[in-house]
Amino acid sequence: MAGSASGTIRVGVGGWDYDPWRRTFYPADLPRARQLEYAAARLTAVEINATFYKLQRRELFERWAAAAPAGFKFAVKASRYCTNRKVLGDAGEGIERFCAQGFTALGDALGPILWQLAPTKRFDPGEIGAFLELLPASQDGLALRHALEPRHESFRCAEFVALARAAKVAIVFADHGEYPQIADPTSDFVYTRLQRTREEEPDGYAASELDHWAEVLTSWARGESPPALAYVGEPAAAAGPRDVYAFVISGAKVRNPAAARALIERLA
Asked: Does 65 fall in a domain?
């Protein structure tokens, strides 16, 4: 979805290799090597989770990019060795190594980098400010966009919003039962992770819930701050259209592709 008065909305899931999807999303006879190609033809983004666990080869990113159509985007989940540490401000060497692994081979298909913090990591303004300063603006000549996902309630404060806004780093809006919801826009894009799918719902969410999220995504893309969400900082200055990345992840994982497809249909 794109236009002069609206940013582009991309909707996807986390990863693409999940055995139960072979019974619910992928055709039973689809070769595993073609799963990404199949998913990329039906979704508009995917969050790469493998990079959270270990560095990947540049050739692998090249192969992934070749499997996706024009306009498709890959979000890249940052290494746990950068984000799950006692002092985030000491992550500089790990961040450099992570960013140099070759994900820029995705080219135009490169979306935001997701930096997910441990649920036990509390907000400390000095530590978080130092970490945000370590995130590079570019790599191999490509501009980088960063999204930070805090998962401790202490981040629900105006000081954190101000830090993220100054760094132009998006705060991930997490629809989750335990993690804090922070809807304040802090960058020129929005990154949301919808994590409440239920197996008893064929599309993961009830139709009314999918309608709601489609409206929220559309509002974000217009540069608006939807009134039904939770804000903690100063109101954002007037802004133009924003790109939106929405990933249906966790929850009843078996239903996530159906939920993503249902959202894409509503946004068409």
From this structure: yes
> Which 3-state string (H, E, C) describes 160-208?
HHHHHHHHCCEECEEECCCCCCCCCCCCCEEEEEECCCCCCCCCCCCHH
CATH of the domain at 19: 3.20.20.410
Residue 4 lies in a domain: no
Q: Could you give the number of structural domains in the chain?
A: 1
The model's pLDDT over 82-126, given as tens digits with 9 standing for 90+, comes to 999 999 999 999 999 999 999 999 999 999 999 999 999 999 999
Residue 3 in domain: no
pLDDT digits (tens, 9 = 90+) for 246-255: 999 989 999 9
The 10s digit of each residue's pLDDT in 27-58 is 999 999 999 999 999 999 999 999 999 999 99
- Domain of 208 in residue numbering reads as 9-267
Residue 1, in any domain of the structure: no
In order of 139, 232, 241, the CA distances from 249 in angstroms are 27, 24, 25
Using CA atoms, how far apart are residues 149 and 176, in angstroms rounded to an integer? 12
